[in-house]
Amino acid sequence: MKHPFGLIFKMLVPIAIGMAVVWWLFSREFDPAVLDSIHWSSRVLLCIVLALLFMAGRDYGMTWRFRILTDRSLSWLSALKVCMLCEFTSCVTPTTAGGSALGMLFLHREGIEFGKGTALMMTTLFLDNLFFVLTLPLFLLLVPYDLLFGFGERAFTVGLQSVFWSIYGLLTAWTAVLCTGILIKPRAIRTALGRLFRLGWLRRWADKADTLGADMEATGRDLRHRSLSWWLKAFAATSVSWLSRFLLVNALFLGFAPGADQFVVLARQFVVWVILMVSPTPGGAGISEWLFTTYYGDLLGGAGMALVIALFWRILSYYVYLIIGCFILPSWLGKGLKKSRKYA
Question: Contact at 8 Å (CB) between 74 and 66?
């Protein structure tokens, strides 16, 4: 990522994938009459402003969480910078790889020790996973199951349901491992991982598993003495960030399709983000646009309006962070080069 051409390539790949899928969807599904049906009234513009506010809420939640996790040793500006850099790396790396994996480097550049930075990023991973595990029952109470998985073409809904529950099951299991490894019995989890990854074909990942176990143990030493209020604040910040991501789409629906059931829109965003956790493309490019258009089409009477809303959604939740990262990353890299020359 330090080489400028490599950075440009990493940015162009997801943009090209996303644009190719959008072009394919437009050529296949879009009806020009949809644009004529959009009335750019004050209500639509107000809802776009509301979507921008939810976008800011997403970043505020993440920034607030970094402040809490570092015991306010990071200023608001430094925490926001780390937040933006993590979002940028999420845009240019597959979601399966985890865009926040470089978070400890970003934190280190802002004065946080590597060991503590690793513990902090593992804590953010645990909090994110915990949010998804705990909020699913709430969404299932608010929205009938059939409105999430029992509509439209059977092949799509059956596939969607299977993928969602498989990912959610793995997410729940991984959250349990993180909870045990960080807070309950870190030594036991590290030993179990070491034994597991000495078996057969798993040996190729033995070093990574040992590093993971060591990170869990170190994180546990830092977190086990934390108070309940500290955990509640950290989880509240996590919830603010994720709910703001979801509500951004609600704001767009209020503007372009006010008749849609807002609870269904919100619950389906939960499903979309769970599935995007295992996207093999950078930032979920291509998959996001297709999934959104197909999944929300029944609420809009067709895929045409869904494409319009999907474009606004991706601009505000994805492309904006690519652009912001282009401005922040060069100065961040330049700061690191100056430090390297200073200590050379």
Answer: yes
Distance CA 308, CA 248 (A): 14
Would you give the DSSP letter of residue 111?
T
Region of poorest pLDDT, from 20-29, 105-114, 157-166: 20-29
Could you report the per-residue pLDDT of 242-277, keeping only the tens digit for each?
Answer: 999 999 999 999 998 888 999 999 999 999 999 988
CB atoms within 10 A of CB 102: 17
Q: What does the buried/exposed string (b/e) look like for 120-131 if buried means 16 or more CB atoms within 10 Å of the residue's CB?
A: bbbbbbbbbbbb
Between CA 320 and CA 316 the distance in angstroms is 6
Question: Residue for token digits 């703001």?
Answer: 244
Average pLDDT (129-133) is: 96
Strand partners, 94: 282
Q: How far is CA 299 from CA 55, 294, 327, in A?
A: 23, 10, 38
Reference 276, options 238, 305, 314, 302; nearest CA is 314
* Vertex 125: Cα angle to 175 and 296 (nearest 5): 85
Buried b (16+ CB within 10 A) or exposed e, 31-52: eeebeeeeeeeeebeebbebbe
